[in-house]
Every structure is written in structure tokens, then in C-alpha cells.
């Protein structure tokens, strides 16, 4: 009998923290703005002998904030440790990290397992460390730029609780969203400020053993996370099916070839010779400090989603969409508060025409200058039938492009909706009289022609006739012409 296998996945997520200065010196953390390589550096972040590190207070606040958002407990006493290894992008020959006592541990994040079941993923630890320099590999040599060396980095490590690639994707997505909500990381994966590592093993379904795992390093997009995980799961299953054993190793992901590649045999923790960082005292956090950080927590995506469902009568997926970005959720709520239209209608406009415009123009919600009250005005004009839906779209495009006042644009473009029944009736009658053949065909059973008649009215009125009134009159007119 052939065994079926399930994956066991644990994720490590590295995110740079949005502080002004680096983790242990006063160089700028905004290394992307440095004019030249190796200009944003000092004796500390280039590892010169005798230079002393000083902990960045803001980074500890942001790290604690993330710990609290991930339902972790904060270690009031936590310590820095040296992780020793040699690599050209690591000037000191060690990385200052946290080992035995991280700033936060034992958290929990609820994710969707891909079959609409909720799954609790335990967060093992959240710790502070520092980013490395950047290497540029040339043909026969490599160049090193220390501008990034020492930028505050947060590592979030999950327990191996994930059992599907979909759940891994949802976990990673949710962590990114939370980091963005907290304003601690931009989530800009192309810039490398957020990176995933997937630890993967497979085992026969029904077994609860933890088999040898491999670790795929530096996954720089959600797509890479998904593809690399799927590839690695298949690779390991094949090894077991052929009677082989999986070797514990660190892998890279070759996005072009779509394969994982061996980088080195996986080192164990003891290979790093971790020891307490002698140049830094332990961090002692008081209850009042932790309480103050906790009071800074914004409403998080899950809570916001539930509130949008109960307050605004939205479906789960509608609420999820709106809360996927904090700025989008705020924008929506702002429009709702300024508008007389139902929240559902406002969701439809934002999820529909509004997003379409942003996507087509390559803009994000953060780029939107259209004031929520202006959008509210426009939506209300459609709701109270001053203008039709298609005219509303025209006005929205105009507002995005040139700004202005919705009522003024409606006037200038002559978009007022025709609601006068007699006027619409006249047009409907004319169209029916002018097209006797189509009328006969319709009445003989060719029902698809109804849309054609409606289209004729839209054409004659430039889309301004109230569609409900038109429809009613059209049905009546066709009925009267039945032989
Ligand atoms: P370290 O990297 O310090 O050696 P661990 O090996 O315990 O620490 O865990 C690192 C990551 O690997 C964690 O995210 C953990 O959930 C995951 N992991 C541990 N064991 C397994 C396993 N058998 N299969 C898949 N993932 C695992
Ligand atoms: Mg690791
Ligand atoms: Zn420095």
C-alpha cells in the first residue's frame, strides 16, 4: 500500500524595523537613501575594534509591539547574545542577536488552513537582531556595501504547526499585514525588508513524528514561498518513496529554474557558539513600560474584520478585503461616516470602480488624494438617483484625474439622470415602433433581445435613463405588442 504524506512546516520571518537609526549605533536605518555604498557607516556597524554597541530604544518598543500583537508574553528580563559565524557580509565575525531570552515568546496566530478551517499556529519567539551588509557578486570577485549592516531586524519564529502550503501562505500574509498595521515594517518584499524562511519536513499522514527537516532561505515573495514549499514537499516525498532519507540542510530557491538547491549542511545551534553579549546589559522592562506599549496597539486586522461584519453587515470576504490594509479600512470608514448611503454600497464602490482605477494606474491606497467626503458625495448622488451608476463611474474617473466637486462635474458633463417617466416612456415607445421585427422576435421567444432594447434606450439617452423605470416601461410596451 502506498503511503500518503503530509508536510510539517515552520516559518521564520525576518523583518527590518522602521526606526530612524541602526540597532546599535546612530547611523541611519534608511540605508536605501544613502548616496553611495559604504557612506552610511561608523566604527560600530563596521565592527572596528573597541567600538561599543548601544541598544536602539525605539527598536525594542517596536519589537515588543509586534510580540504583543502576536499574543506573545513579553520577557521583562531579556538578553542579547553573540551568534558567531564568518561571512564577508558580517563585519564583526558575529551577529548580535537574542538567544536564550528573546524579548517575546509563546504567541499564537490563527490562520486559515486552505479548506476554510481555522488553525492555531504557535509563535515560538520574537527576537531582536541586526541585518547584515549587502554583497554584490561580480564575475571573479564580490563587492561589499556596509550601509545596511546593523539595521534593526526582527525575527519571528513559528512552531512547526503548519500542515499545508495554503496555511503557510496565510500565516505569512497575516504576519505581513500585522507588521504594516503596526507601522513597524513596510512589507515591501521587492526591497528585501521582509524575508521568509521555510522549514519543511514530510511524514506519513496519521503519524505524529517530526522527521528531518530542510530549511529554505531568503524567500523574497509570497510566490517564492509557495513554489519553493511545494517543490520541497514533493522532493522529500519522492526521497521517502524511493527508500531514501532526507538530509538536514540549508537550501536556496532558484526562482528561474523552479528548484531548491543545496547551500550547505545545516549547522546546529552549538556550531554558532552562542554566548551572552558582553558589551550589552540585559534589557529590563518594567510592567508600566509594557503597559504603555500595549496601549499603543491599534485595532488589529482580525478584530477590525469582526467589527466590520457586525457594524456594517458585510460578509467575511468583503470585510477581509477592506481590512487587508489599515489605510484602506480607515478610508472606507471615513466615507461611511460622511455618507448617507448604506455601508454595503460604499464597499461595492471601493472594491469595484475605486480599486479598478488604482490597479489600472498602478497606484496604492496610500497615493489616493481623493477626499473621503468627496467620494461620499458622489456615491450619495447615485444612491438618491440624481445620476445613474454609469454616470457615477464617469464622475469618479474625473475626480481621480482632475479633482473637483461631484455636483459641479455632473452639471458640466450634463449627466443628471432622467427620472421623468413620461420622457422615458416616449423614448421606449419610439424604439419599439422603430424596430417591429425585433419586437416580433422577442415576443416569439427570443428573450435575449430584451438587453438589446435596453441598450437602445441607454444609447438614445447617453445612459441617463433610470434603468429600473426603463425596464418597467419596456416590459409593459413589449407585452402590449404581443399578438
Ligand atoms: P533552530 O533553527 O534554532 O535550529 P529549530 O530547528 O527548533 O531551531 O526550529 C527552527 C524552525 O524550524 C522553526 O520555525 C520550527 O518550527 C521549524 N521546525 C523544527 N522542526 C521541524 C520539523 N521537523 N519539520 C518542519 N519544521 C520544523
Ligand atoms: Mg533558523
Ligand atoms: Zn553605524
Key attributes of the depicted protein:
483 residues, alpha+beta, Arc Repressor Mutant, subunit A, 3 domains, 3-stranded antiparallel β-sheet, 40% helix, elongated, binds adenosine-5'-diphosphate, binds magnesium ion, binds zinc ion
Short description:
The chain is of the alpha+beta class and 483 residues long.
Question: If you had to describe this structure to a student in words, what would you say it looks like?
Answer:
By secondary structure, the chain is an alpha+beta fold. It has 3 domains: 5-293, no CATH class; 301-412, no CATH class; 421-480, Orthogonal Bundle (Arc Repressor Mutant, subunit A). It has 15 helices and 16 strands. The protein has a 9-stranded mixed beta sheet. A 3-stranded antiparallel beta sheet has the order 5-4-15, with no helix packed on it. Adenosine-5'-diphosphate (ADP) binds at residues 8-12, 157-160, 199-201, 210-211, 213, 269. Adenosine-5'-diphosphate (ADP) is lined by residues 8-12, 157-160, 199-201, 210-211, 213, 269.
* Largest β sheet strand count, sense and barrel closure: 9 strands, mixed
| Spatial strand arrangement across the major sheet | 2-6-7-10-1-11-12-13-14
Q: Approximately how much beta-strand content do the residues carry?
A: 15-25%
Q: What is the number of helices?
A: 15
Number of separate structural domains: 3
- Rg estimate, integer Å: 30 Å
Secondary structure: helix percent: 25-40%
DSSP, total strands? 16
What small molecules accompany the polymer chains? adenosine-5'-diphosphate, magnesium ion, zinc ion
Spans of 5+ residues with little confidence (pLDDT < 50)? none
User: In whole angstroms, how far apart are the ends?
Assistant: 71 Å
| SSE-based structural type | alpha+beta
Question: Mean pLDDT, nearest integer?
Answer: 94
State the shape.
elongated
Amino acid at each position: 500500500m502506498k503511503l500518503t504524506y503530509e508536510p510539517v512546516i515552520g516559518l521564520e520571518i525576518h523583518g527590518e524595523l522602521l526606526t530612524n537609526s541602526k540597532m546599535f549605533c546612530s547611523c541611519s536605518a534608511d540605508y536605501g537613501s544613502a548616496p553611495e555604498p559604504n557612506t552610511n557607516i561608523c566604527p560600530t556597524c563596521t565592527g572596528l575594534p573597541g567600538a561599543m554597541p548601544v541598544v536602539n530604544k525605539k527598536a525594542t518598543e517596536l519589537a515588543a509591539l509586534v510580540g504583543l500583537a502576536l499574543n506573545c508574553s513579553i520577557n521583562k528580563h531579556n538578553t542579547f547574545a553573540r551568534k558567531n559565524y564568518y561571512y564577508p557580509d558580517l563585519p564583526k565575525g558575529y551577529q548580535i542577536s537574542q538567544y536564550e531570552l528573546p524579548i517575546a515568546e509563546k504567541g499564537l496566530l490563527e490562520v486559515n488552513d486552505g479548506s476554510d478551517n481555522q488553525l492555531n499556529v504557535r509563535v515560538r519567539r520574537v527576537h531582536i537582531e541586526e541585518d547584515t551588509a549587502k554583497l554584490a557578486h561580480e564575475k571573479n570577485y564580490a563587492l561589499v556595501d556596509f550601509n545596511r549592516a546593523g539595521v534593526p531586524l526582527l525575527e519571528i519564529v513559528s512552531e512547526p504547526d503548519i500542515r499545508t502550503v495554503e496555511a503557510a501562505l496565510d500565516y505569512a500574509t497575516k504576519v505581513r499585514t500585522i507588521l504594516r498595521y503596526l507601522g513597524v515594517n513596510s512589507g515591501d518584499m521587492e526591497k528585501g525588508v521582509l524575508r521568509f524562511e521555510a522549514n519543511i519536513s514530510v511524514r506519513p499522514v496519521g503519524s505524529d513524528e517530526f522527521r528531518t527537516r530542510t530549511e529554505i532561505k531568503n524567500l523574497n515573495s509570497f510566490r517564492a514561498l509557495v513554489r519553493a514549499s511545494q517543490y520541497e514537499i514533493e522532493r522529500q516525498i519522492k526521497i521517502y518513496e524511493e527508500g531514501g532519507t532526507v538530509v538536514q540542510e540549508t537550501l536556496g530557491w532558484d526562482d528561474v529554474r523552479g528548484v531548491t538547491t543545496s547551500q550547505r549542511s545545516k549547522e546546529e545551534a552549538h556550531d554558532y557558539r552562542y554566548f551572552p553579549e558582553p558589551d550589552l546589559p540585559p534589557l529590563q522592562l518594567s510592567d508600566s513600560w509594557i503597559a504603555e506599549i500595549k496601549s499603543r496597539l491599534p485595532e488589529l486586522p482580525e478584530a477590525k474584520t469582526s467589527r466590520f461584519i457586525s457594524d456594517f453587515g458585510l460578509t467575511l470576504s468583503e470585510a477581509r478585503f477592506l481590512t487587508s490594509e489599515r489605510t484602506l479600512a480607515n478610508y472606507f470608514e471615513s466615507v461611511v461616516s460622511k455618507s448617507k448611503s448604506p455601508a454595503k454600497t460604499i464597499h461595492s464602490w471601493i472594491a469595484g470602480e475605486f480599486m479598478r482605477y488604482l490597479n489600472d494606474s498602478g497606484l496604492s491606497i496610500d497615493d489616493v488624494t481623493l477626499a473621503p467626503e468627496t467620494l461620499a458625495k458622489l456615491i450619495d448622488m447615485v444612491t438618491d438617483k440624481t445620476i445613474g451608476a454609469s454616470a457615477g463611474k464617469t464622475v469618479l474617473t474625473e475626480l481621480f484625474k482632475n479633482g473637483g466637486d461631484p455636483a459641479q462635474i455632473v452639471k458640466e458633463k450634463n449627466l443628471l439622470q432622467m427620472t421623468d417617466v413620461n420622457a422615458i416612456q416616449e423614448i421606449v415607445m419610439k424604439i419599439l415602433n422603430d424596430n417591429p421585427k425585433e419586437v416580433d422576435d422577442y415576443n416569439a421567444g427570443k428573450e435575449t433581445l430584451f438587453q438589446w432594447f435596453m441598450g437602445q434606450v441607454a444609447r438614445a439617452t447617453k445612459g441617463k435613463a433610470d434603468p429600473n423605470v426603463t425596464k418597467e416601461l419596456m416590459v409593459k410596451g413589449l407585452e402590449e405588442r404581443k399578438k
